[in-house]
Design a protein that fits this description.
Layout: E1 3-19, E2 21-26, E3 37-46, E4 51-56, E5 62-67, E6 72-85, E7 101-102, H1 108-113, H2 115-118, H3 125-133, E8 139-140, H4 141-155, E9 157-158, H5 169-175, E10 177-178, H6 180-193, E11 198-207, E12 225-236, E13 240-245, E14 250-251, E15 256-262, E16 271-275, E17 280-293, H7 303-322, E18 328-332, E19 334-337, H8 355-369, E20 375-380, E21 392-399, H9 423-436, E22 445-448, H10 451-459, H11 475-487, E23 492-498, E24 500-501, E25 514-515, E26 526-527, H12 570-576, H13 610-620, H14 628-633, E27 659-665, H15 673-676, E28 684-689, H16 695-712, E29 717-720, E30 729-737, E31 740-748, H17 751-767, E32 770-771, E33 774-775, E34 781-782, E35 789-793, H18 801-804, H19 806-818, H20 820-823, H21 847-856
Parallel strand pairs: 9-10, 22-26, 28-29
Antiparallel strand pairs: 1-6, 1-17, 2-5, 2-16, 3-6, 4-5, 7-8, 11-12, 11-15, 12-13, 13-14, 18-31, 18-35, 19-31, 19-32, 20-21, 21-30, 22-23, 23-27, 24-25, 27-28, 30-31, 33-34
Length: 857
């Protein structure tokens, strides 16, 4: 991925009379050791009547010596060269073992050869003081050079100085400023006084405007630019001459084109020679032009090519629309962190100490763009064999009709920001929430770690280890034991509120009918299942009273093919839990005997009328209230039978078997033991959502949670069960995969929207310090690895072209199989049966026949 840059350099002297030009020496040809490839070079000299001899000076620099037989009124030198600007690693070198650490000494033979580059000028007072500041403690030679180069860069302010010659180091230090040649000569003298061979370099500097601006640090020039420049080179045994640019504080790169390298600056002058006495006008012009650009990650297409791609996408859109295909398309692009690319989490591991932090940053940017008015849900995602726990999944949900789901996004806390909630805060929150829902809070239970299990684990530890630092092979088990014994076995983990939607609710008339009830256990306390997962996934549900299979309250989500009506407006959900929105308190019981507050009707986004509220109270009981205190005062006990444990072998069909949990825990736990062991402990409040069948019920519960968080001024994180799958709710996910972060971007129905979403996603990833490419050890570009799929389907199952016309899928598979090149079009370096783009006929020989049978059926 290189750029061919054409450099044009014109130096023009105009004299007021005819003059004799003495022999002229021109040092404007790239030196033999130039690392950037010179594609072409030409030197044009006027007057055209001259003799030219190409030579190499004692230091192997190219120089042209010209002799002019006739008098002239002008002397013009034009250099045109084309250089291939291919990025290279300036640290790509090896050192001899004796030179790996500074200070070192050159071998006697080498020292004799380098004698001109070791000869230092007399040390002056300011230079001596500066030398005394240099840290000469033993360390790696490369680090010493980088530190010294940076020190000079910070000490000397860059100025454009038109006067001829080079300042002495004493003058540069006294002024605290200088041109590039002054900084370079100062660095040469410092290196020589440190015992290192150094030389002065005159050359071209080509700077091309970057395709993408840097996030931190200077982005470089705004436009393509070139000029004569000066820097320093130091000789390292095993590596040769290494360029150091004190003006920028960087090592010389592909833009540094050396012309002349000499022990003294005077020997590197671009043009040197005599002329008769006269008045002279001098002009100088330099320009760089890109004449060829190979496709690269940051600029893969020319403007003309991209216009053709966009036009083709529009044409495909028109064809799909004309054919009533109703195709939607999403994607699963993958990203890796810009920093620490060698870490296991960015190569092989699905989880790691920093991956969730990067994903959180990206999620917040995507929520601001796509999910305004939506909500964040941090739940569980994929679970692969061999992994102890499912991976996390950061979800953004928002309504397809652009209505709000959550009014105040500030109530969602950022896991990266330390908060210090306690278990007492969790208890206060869940009891207030129960009041918002019109439920009694006496069935709120505290959850504890299983004392007996951890005591049993402690007894099984070797006698010579500490439970706080158990030497177990399982890293997660070590962290688990350390956490439990540190916070004490009798500490409250969180609180649970048994919660479900009552069977006698009338969703067509009003909101859900929330119900609760007691839980019974053999122990006095509710002990959670051992593990690291959120509290809601460790509830001892198997210990609840037995229920027959026929009586078990299975949750069955709605048929995805059934058409949905329009969702009620957000104001209707929020109004049910707004302060002062309750009707007259009352109490009713469901057929099962549990408390059953009724929902406030969803009426055109406004509060229900008093008459409607009276109707609801008569039919169902008391409505939910925005005032938790008023709700608590209205509660009355349920029938005693259903507040007791069932008798032996009685099917306890009335027991509420789903629950909402509130837990305060350290968010570092989700990133693994390594992340939990470092950093600052934090207490974030997590709300574990119960499973629900209807989206309307889920949105209603969210409204109650937001009202509670607003009243208590508490920030939360939603987790647990996601909303039921519903086309009226859009979803975007950010999840971990081995070595990458994967973004499951929401499907769209047209090409322009797909382009807009993809471009924003990649920009947001870049701003989050994530990139979509990796590089091999030899510098070759490669993809990030797994994922990066296309996802095609329909807005609903009934709209999917693959379900409406199954033979379309068979046709697509067969076409792909019969055109092998398509299988490798997007595969990059990842090919074969274990890759992300396998062919049907790879690996198992039976696969092709199985596909044939599947297509026939």
């Amino acid at each position: 991925m290189s750029i061919h840059a054409a450099l044009n350099h014109v130096t023009h002297y105009t004299y007021d009379r005819l003059v004799n030009l003495g022999p002229q020496v021109i040092r404007l040809r790239p030196a033999p050791h130039c690392r950037s490839k010179v594609v072409s070079y030409s030197l044009k000299v006027e007057p055209s009547t001259h003799f030219i001899n190409w030579q190499q000076d004692p230091f192997a620099n190219y120089q042209a010596r010209l002799v002019f037989p006739d008098k002239t009124t002008q002397f013009k030198v034009t250099v045109d060269l084309v250089v291939e600007m291919a990025v290279y690693n300036p640290f790509d070198f090896f050192l001899e073992p004796e030179a790996e650490e500074f200070p070192f000494t050159y071998a006697p033979e080498l020292k004799q050869e380098l004698a001109p580059y070791l000869a230092a000028d007399p040390v002056t007072p300011l230079l001596q003081a500066y030398l005394d500041k240099i840290d000469r403690t033993k360390r790696r030679s490369v680090l010493f050079l980088v530190d010294l180069n940076t020190l000079v860069h910070k000490s000397v302010d860059y100025t454009i100085r038109m006067e001829p010659g080079v300042q002495t180091p004493e003058e540069t230090l006294a002024l605290g400023s200088g041109s590039c040649r002054d900084s370079a000569w100062l660095l040469v003298q410092l290196l020589r006084n440190c015992g290192l061979a150094a030389r002065f370099v005159s050359g071209y500097l080509i700077q091309l405007a970057p395709d993408v601006k840097s996030l931190d640090g200077p982005s470089g020039t705004e436009v393509d630019f070139t000029d004569l420049h000066a820097w320093c080179e130091v000789y390292l045994p095993g590596a040769g001459w290494i360029g150091l640019d004190a003006t920028s504080g960087l090592l010389a790169g592909e833009g540094h084109i050396p012309l002349a390298c000499t022990p003294q600056p005077s020997g590197a002058a671009p043009i040197e020679g005599g002329v008769d006495e006269s008045e002279v006008e001098f002009s100088h012009h330099m320009q760089v032009t890109r004449i060829y650009e190979s496709p690269r990650v940051t600029k893969p297409y020319t403007p003309e090519q991209w216009t053709a791609v966009m036009n083709l996408g529009d044409q495909v859109d028109a064809d799909l629309l004309a054919g009533d295909v109703r195709l939607t398309m999403g994607g699963e692009p993958t990203f890796v962190a810009v920093n620490d690319r060698d870490a296991p989490e960015w190569n092989t591991d699905a989880l790691g100490p920093t991956k969730r932090g990067f994903a959180t940053e990206l999620v917040h940017k995507l929520r601001d763009e796509y999910g305004q008015g939506g909500f964040l849900h941090f739940g569980q995602g994929k679970w692969y064999p061999g992994e102890q726990l499912p991976r996390w999944a950061l979800n953004i949900y928002w309504r397809a009709d652009k209505q709000k789901v959550w009014g105040n996004p500030a109530l969602f806390t950022d896991e990266r920001t330390p908060t210090h909630y306690s278990a007492e805060d969790a208890g206060y929150f869940i009891r207030t929430l129960a009041g918002k829902l019109g439920l009694t809070d006496k069935y709120v239970q505290a959850g504890y770690e299983d004392t007996w299990y951890y005591l049993w684990r402690e007894r099984r530890l070797p006698v010579n280890v500490d439970p706080f630092n158990a030497k177990l092979d399982d890293e997660m088990e070590r962290a688990r034991l350390r956490r439990v014994f540190t916070q004490k076995l009798d500490s409250v983990v969180g609180y649970v509120l048994p919660l479900k939607v009552g069977a006698s609710g009338n969703p067509g008339l009003g909101g859900p009918e929330w119900t609760t009830g007691p839980w019974f256990f053999r122990d006095e306390r509710m002990y959670l299942m051992p593990g690291d997962s959120p509290m809601g996934l460790r509830l001892p549900l198997d210990s609840l009273p037995w229920v027959s299979e026929g009586d078990f309250p299975y949750l069955v989500e709605r048929d995805p093919t059934v058409a949905r009506g329009q969702l009620p407006p957000h104001t209707s959900f929020a109004a049910r839990y707004a302060p002062g929105a309750s009707g007259a308190p009352g109490t009713a019981t469901t057929p099962s005997g549990s408390v059953s507050p009724s929902g406030l009707p969803y009426l055109a986004g406004n509060l229900a009328t008093a008459e409607a509220r009276r109707t609801m109270q008569t039919a169902k009981g008391r409505v939910p209230t925005g005032d938790a205190t008023a709700a608590q005062s209205a509660r009355q006990p349920e029938p005693a039978r259903y507040a007791e444990a069932p008798s032996r072998f009685e099917s306890a069909h009335w027991i509420t078997r789903t629950a909402l949990c509130v837990e305060v825990r350290d968010p570092r736990r989700a990133s693994g033991p390594k992340a939990e062991a470092v950093g600052t402990k934090s207490g974030v409040m997590y709300i574990f959502m119960p499973p629900l069948e209807r989206l309307e019920d889920y949105l209603d519960l969210l409204a109650a949670i937001e009202a509670t968080a607003t009243e208590l001024k508490m920030q939360i994180v939603l987790e647990g069960y996601p909303p039921p799958r519903d086309p009226r709710l859009k979803l975007l996910q950010v999840t971990p995969d081995p070595g990458v972060i994967e973004v499951n971007i929401h499907p769209v129905t047209n090409w322009k929207e797909l382009v807009t979403n993809t471009e924003f996603l990649y920009n947001a990833a870049f701003e989050s310090r994530l990139s979509a490419e990796k590089f091999m050890t030899d510098g070759r570009h490669t993809g990030t690895g797994g994922g990066n799929h296309f996802v095609m389907g329909g807005a609903t199952p009934a709209d999917s072209p693959f379900l409406r016309k199954p033979e379309l899928l068979a046709s697509l598979l067969l076409y792909w199989h019969n055109h092998p090149s398509l299988s490798y079009l997007f595969s990059g370096m990842f090919v074969g049966p274990t890759s992300q783009a396998p062919r049907v006929d790879e690996a198992r020989n039976d696969q092709l026949y199985e596909l044939e049978i599947a297509i026939e059926q």
